[in-house]
Amino acid sequence: MRAYLLKRFLQMIPTLLGITFITFCIIQLAPGNPAMLKLQMASQGEMADTAYAKQIIEQTKKLYGLDKPLPVQYLLWVKRVFTLDFGTSFKDHRRVLDKIAERLPVTIQINVISIFLVYLIAIPFGVYSATHPDTFADRTLTLAFFFLYSLPNFWVAVLLIMLFGGGEFWDVFPVYGISSINAESWPLWRQILDRLWHLALPVVCLTYGGFAYLSRLTRAELLEVIREDYVRTARAKGLSERVVIFKHAFRNALLPIVTLLAFLLPAMFGGSVIIESIFSIPGMGQLGFEAVLSRDYPVIMALTTISALLTLVGLLLSDILYAVLDPRIQLD
Q1: Alpha carbon distance 232, 291 (integer Å)
Q2: 114-125, pLDDT tens digit by residue?
Q3: What mean pLDDT is reported for the chain?
């Protein structure tokens, strides 16, 4: 196990460098640069062709280090990252880690609630459908979940705002921000209820597609396992159906579901650009979207690097859980 973990950690280094290098190159291929964008925002394009404007652009590039060759820029960035320094934002000159630290708790709150609800709903429905195949209930659940999975979340978000956010019907839930005005002066229990009240609609938009997919995946995997010989042998021994399903079959059906762990960690960090933008939630998704629009290279690189690292860690955790769930898998 130790040798395997050491090998995987060593493999992460070139993989992470490759991801960051490709991201760095793609960013440079995007039209425009922070210096030109700042000048256009300041002068609204009136000075774009003057000699003074070109001088300002060159000075801004020198300030941001954009006047150096691209390989030098990348190597300097890698050197700072090894000291856990992602630099300062081109947009407001704040430390990138400080901006991430402000947005990350909001995104984690939303995603933890969403992931918990996804598994809480999907696993029981998936097990029920697998143990009652081709029944009216199974067909109804299959149709309903396929219908939910096909709905785009931005359309559902707009629909929920119209129905429950004071659009044309009921004004039940807020559709802006994550807390009420002066909520920080309220008691803790009231702040928690207010936060849940504000996150109700975004959580619905982030949940329905996930549990629809996971439920169908659980059903398919459990159906395949139930047909195995060792499950029939367990039933022939006289074991109860509950013991056969949850002790013998369900454990092996979990292997493909565990693979989703590789994507849960970066999802919890990255957030949802569309949902956070629609509901004006100050999370990681909105931060990444704003960074792309403003050509904020340090923020983009920081978000990409951390997401890639969390994906690699998720893959490692998935492999370890494979060995825990199935003793036949030997990591060494």
Answers
A1: 56
A2: 989 988 998 899
A3: 82
